[in-house]
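Hi U.,

Before I forget, here's the chain from the pilot set. I'm dumping it here mostly so it's searchable later in email.
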Amino acid sequence: MIIAVDFDGTIVEHRYPQIGEEIPFAVETLKMLVRDRHKLILWSVREGELLEEAVNWCRERGLEFYAVNRDYPEETVDNNPHFSRKLKVDLFIDDRNLGGLPDWGTIYRMITHHKKWHHLIDEAGRTSLEDYTPPKNKKRWWQF
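Structure:
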């Protein structure tokens, strides 16, 4: 799977343009995803020196990305006339998700076990709308 991962607010606390503290288990979880053979793309608003700082911060912790702000490492404006910062990936991990950023243990579980939010809700003991069975209609006097 190809996964785009935001940096500020997702891997580290949001302190842009500085680099915040690591969000617990972010780097270790991402390294596990790489070991599981997923391709990770760092997808950030950062550019230039600020982007290099983020890449180096990850590299110092043993986290290497398949590509940074592009679909594949060799992609450039010169060799791809249709270059766009809009990535073609299977999944985005971003603190701006609808509902916010789950904890990294939940993210890993969702990816490795192919779970969606409604699966996790079901596992927590709640009933999803897919499993909902409406109550049977009562018999009315005119239906006898």
